[in-house]
Amino acid sequence: MMSLSFITVPVFLDTTLQAPQLFQQWARMYSYGHQALPTLAVGTCLLHLYTAAKRRGAKKSSAIFVVAGVTTLIMLPFTWLVMAPTNTELFGLDTKVLFPPCGGYFRGNRVIFIGA
Question: What pTM, to 2 d.p., does this model score?
């Protein structure tokens, strides 16, 4: 999951010269992540808990796997509750860039002005 931040974002920042394109890339990455990552987090949690149960059955320490599973699952409500205002603000900025109040709009990578 962290590869989105550690790999994708630096690539976007290094290769994108225009802010509107960064907004569009962020919105698309958020859209894909919003669809896939909750399921991946639950699946990862279940795998950690399964491993913890197997280790406990073998009389080995399993606490670290329980902590990892719970931590993975806790990310979901944190993202929904704490990050939602930030994401909403970023989507608002995306809308302002795509439909600026100056009477122009973006098509591709350039602004097209309508009116005077």
Answer: 0.65
